[in-house]
Design a protein that fits this description.
Blueprint: H1 5-13, H2 16-28, E1 31-32, H3 33-38, H4 44-56, E2 60-65, E3 68-73, H5 76-107
Antiparallel strand pairs: 1-3, 2-3
Helix pairs in contact: 1-4, 1-5, 2-4
């Protein structure tokens, strides 16, 4: 069975450190793993592993500039995840409203 791209996004964002890295990239713009590691309680190598997981989900893009690799957030996959959550939430709202009406008809 083919993995849904949204699955990769949710899996990547399930980790709090990755959410922190994403937040830093979204707030601060493109940066290197070394610069990210300076603000985090972990090594540069650990940051790179998190960036790779975010990259596999399509949330981060890496571009080499000489000896450095600059990482930038690519928020489209996150937008797709938000759209899914909104659609799903709307469906649940409709179901709950139907249930409320049924309950009030039976008790009223």
């Amino acid at each position: 069975m083919k993995e849904d791209p949204l699955d990769r996004v949710f899996i990547a964002l399930a980790d709090g450190t990755r959410r922190t890295v994403m937040r830093q990239l979204l707030d601060g713009g493109p940066t290197t793993a070394s610069e990210l590691a300076d603000g985090l309680p972990m090594t540069r190598q650990a940051v790179v592993k998190h960036l790779q997981a975010l990259g596999q989900a399509g949330l981060v893009d890496a571009q080499r500039a000489g000896r450095e690799v600059h990482y930038r957030a690519t928020p489209k996959p996150m937008g797709d995840a938000v759209a899914w959550m909104l659609r799903t939430g709307a469906q649940w709202d409709k179901r709950l409203e139907r249930l409320r009406r049924q309950v009030s008809q039976r008790t009223g």
